[in-house]
Amino acid sequence: MLNPLRNLKKNIEESQITKSIFRVGIPNTDRKRVLIMLGNVFLHLHPTKVKTSGVKLRYTWCAGGLSFFLFLVLTLTGVLLMFYYRPTVDFAYTDMVDIREEVPFGIMREMHRWAAHAMVIMVMLHMFRVFMTGSYKPPREFNWVIGVVLLVLTFLLSFTGYLLPWDQLAIWAITVGSNMAKATPFLGAGGPGSELLQIGGIPLIHSSDDARFLLLGSKEIGGITLNRFYVLHCILLPLVAIVFMAVHFWRIRKDGGISGPM
Amino acid sequence: MLKAFLAAAAALFISAAVHYGLKNVLDYLGQPQISFTLFAIVFIWALFQRPVWTRTGTLLAMTGITLTLGIMLLDKNFAHNLLKPDNAPIFLMIFFFSFFLWISMWQAHNNDRRMEEMLPPEEKETSNQKTWVWPDLVYIEFICMIIWTVVLVVWSLVIPAPLEEPANPGNTPNPSKAPWYFLGLQELLVYFDPWMAGVVLPSIIIFGLMAIPYIDVNPKGNGYYSFKDRRLAILTFCIGFFVMWDYMIVLGTILRGPGWNYFGPFEEWNPHKVVAANNVNLSELVWIKTLYPIGNALNIDWLKQGVPDVGPNYADPGNWLKLLKKEFLGILLLGFYFLVLPVILAKTKLKNFYERLGMGRYAVAIFLFLVMAIVPIKMYLRWTIALKYIFASPWINF
Ligand code: HEM
Asked: Relative to the CA of A65, which ligand 1 atom is closest?
């Protein structure tokens, strides 16, 4: 009874197709366990063996790995949302309604939003874990610095995404946030020291060229802001984050893998 | 001593609850000045207590949090304020951070005990062994991903993403709130001007975080959980992370209503609530509240001049002199705090610290500590003597 099944399994495992995809087959020997890690571009992020203390769930909480996983979920759901969403004042809001009501299995917006919140929490949690294990100490100092950049990027990604539904919640949250930019010392029109920057009585910093204007692309939140935040949210910030993540992961390996007691 | 104090506090709480009603007492205790103080004291005290971080301690604490929240949710005002769809992350944050604070402190105290018994930290037992990434690590990661996929799908099916009325620049909601993770900064706007709360303090937080590995020169506690080996570092970080950043996020989300006024957990958000703000500047306290009566008593006219007027034209050096006169105490205090105090500390209390860090690192570290401390200092000055600005000028206020 079992023999035909076993034969089938064997045939599948040893077929040309399986071998061509997985190169080494089922990793049931140490040699194959090494080869699968080296031969697969995704798994290759990992070494072939790691410190036993570092794999324990209660040491890392998998928080860094899950931050990355949530980033991947956000990329996937984000691309799906981009199929339906148009970043203009006329369409943004109605597209949101349509995504909820017309698109089959319409939870992509939910997935994207909740994963975004979860990622902010997860990244803060990961930072807390790294702190509590003292993993920022030599030789990992610089990777901590890169981590802080990733934390800021996570906040910025979430913040720029907040505007896109173009509802009351969105524009007023961004108003509160971007009003702060107006108060930037020297570079914000309402900030301390901005009057000092002038040439012959003509002010250099005013409401149509200050830090807030740079953020919004205009004096008030409007269509151009939506466009600007869309580009930041969907293209520039993810690209920058990917570069920093690549460095972050590379450095984990180069700094000797997950930290552990000397 | 502690027991007597706790018993007295409990007795006071119960009699107040009987007399005024439990909800009213909790509404009263939630006020920032009280809840912040209580939380800070309990949190810092708890970090040192081993029994708190055992399984039983945490089971009790987590059940306590869950039950309290659950019972409080029976109140319709609290439920209304807390159950807004975009507040879901706050729940996640409270439970997650409490749980993982336990996970880390439990292991830290456990390792401390082991090291007192001359054993190496738990991690050391296996840190010289190696494990195959395939299958051990890959499977852990795989299971974590599956669990989180399920969590996200269920969460998305149960709670719809919020979508309010279409954007309308003419209709300002009250309160207007930033996204939840920035509510700590928005809360700081109560105590600081926007250039501080919105720009300078966040920049210093980011810079300060990046500086941590370079100013913490303690070689111990690298790669294992421990509290004893790095008390100062853990205390500082946890106070910043839990007592300030997270507490203020929760405060800003749940307890700040229209006009950014305080509303107790069981209070209805009344948009017409008016809170009289009669905050005063330090210069007014000096020139009106102090020097004027003295001048009156001693009959010295110069002391009775009131707060000197400073014109807005910064190109006129006269205005700078007047500002110097008007704000002399604020300037002296701030100068002392940021410039003299570090030097005094380096020579006295923090002598060892200074010697270990050296001049450059010490300067950065002490600056960051002082900036971190000025936040609660200003909050308490507001709560006690209604202080608005330590230094006020036509151009910049602090
Ligand atoms: C998008 C955000 C981030 C991602 C995707 C990420 C990812 C990771 C991953 C997968 C690891 C491996 C160990 C683990 O899972 O804990 C790791 C380690 C590390 N991360 Fe992050 N991280 C992020 C943000 C941060 C932040 C905010 C910090 C600190 C401020 C940080 C500092 C570090 C350090 C120092 C290590 C080495 C820890 C050790 O060796 O034990 N990372 N990160």
From this structure: 10
